[in-house]
Please model this.
Amino acid sequence: MDYDVLILGGGIIGCAVAYELSKYNINIALIEKGYDVANDISFANTAVVYDGSESSSSKMALLEKRGIDIIRKHCKKVNVRYNKIGSLRLFLDESGELLNKVYSDSMERGIDGVRIIDSDELYNVEPSLNLKANKAIYSENTSIISPYNLAVSYAEIAVDNGVNFRLEEEVIDIKTISKGFRVTTNKNKFTCKLVINTIPNESFNDMCGNVTSEMKNKKVKCIIVKKSIGDNLKKIIIEDIDEENSMIKVPISENENLIGIKISDNFSAKLELPERILKNIKKESIVNIFTEVYSENDMLIDDSNLEAGYIKVVGNHYAKISVAPAIAQDIEKKVKVSMNITKKKDYIDKKRETYIFREMTKDQINRIISLDKRYGNIICNCNNISEGEIIDSIRRPLGARTVEGVKRRTGIGLGNCNGSSCNIKIIKILAREMDKSVLDIVDDSMDSQILVGRIKEFNEI
Ligand SMILES: Cc1cc2nc3c(=O)[nH]c(=O)nc-3n(C[C@H](O)[C@H](O)[C@H](O)COP(=O)(O)OP(=O)(O)OC[C@H]3O[C@@H](n4cnc5c(N)ncnc54)[C@H](O)[C@@H]3O)c2cc1C
Model:
């Protein structure tokens, strides 16, 4: 056999599974069709880590409750910012029925740190709140993280512990063979004892079909807006308009909020909705508008073919990041029993060090610059990101190979100029580090070439 275990898909779940299984004495590869891992993570670089109090599904709530605990510990371990900002949930329905149900569900699920607050406390917790409400549900647990940084950290540790990440390989077929599987990609054929399929809606032949998750997909309109003067809202704010329609406001950076609006097509007064949460919202402060699919299908592990060596993650959910580490640990337990594996003695449960200038003191920064002058060459003036940080993001295990990969790993290009002054500098550094022509550097995928050719024959671009 080429591998003991093949993990299909390098999304947040695939990376978390690779991390958990890299502790064991087994030969593992992960196959991902993209140039980078976790490439499908939503455009906004911040995710909410839910605690299970908001979920209408008890199964998902319990996964979220376990997930938030694991994520907090993992973020600390791998130095990914975990911001416990809390959330306020308000209800347009004045009967209080929905509010009481959400609260009693949280209590039944044993979620600490969730309570009903009255209007006095509500405006103490969030003095600039524009919405009128007599009561709200306050969860002090709800947090925000950079999901991409967490997924990349999982992947980096897995690589350092011997997992083979096979990027740019698309799985096209899986067949059973004697005591295992043959997985065919667009480039290779691999044999393995166990397949863990984390790819949602794959088009190739799928072994499992016994467990299905009810499809509940909706469109959600996302608006990224610059924070306006007087907007001091610190919490995540969720407003339930009714059982079908809701809005969420998430502070995604120092300067920006994301507003997600989930409303049915026939809901009137859509345009005024964001103003309910953010009073001073103006057309000019809108940075981006996009539509995403919002899924509410329970996520399950289909292990009905585990004896044959096949596990599949089923379902898609708006809290996939929150539940990914709990799903990965459940898969780890199943693999441990099924394959009777032992832990490595030389396992390194640590991410290689990174220098993030915007989180460092002047003295620390100067010490790094004295060791390597490239850390003194600032490439991104909006976010104070140096050439040294960009080079490190490329040279790390499973380093960035695309402009988007550099941006997501370092935070460059996410400032006020939206990358207009640093894009070309990133392209040049990537080309130099990868020994490629600048014309071969892509944004995020194979067909996303940025520079299409020279218009004049200068010696350099
Ligand atoms: C608008 C929006 C907001 C969200 N906000 C939150 C949030 O606040 N909190 C939260 O917890 N979650 C949130 N989610 C959920 C979460 O961001 C995503 O669902 C999840 O991260 C999907 O990304 P992934 O990289 O894990 O991709 P997945 O789709 O789960 O990963 C599958 C991977 O498999 C690869 N692949 C596909 N086909 C093949 C093939 N044939 N061969 C090899 N590889 C293949 C893909 O390239 C991909 O990398 C949100 C989702 C959306 C849409």
Observations:
- DSSP finds eleven helices and 21 strands in the chain.
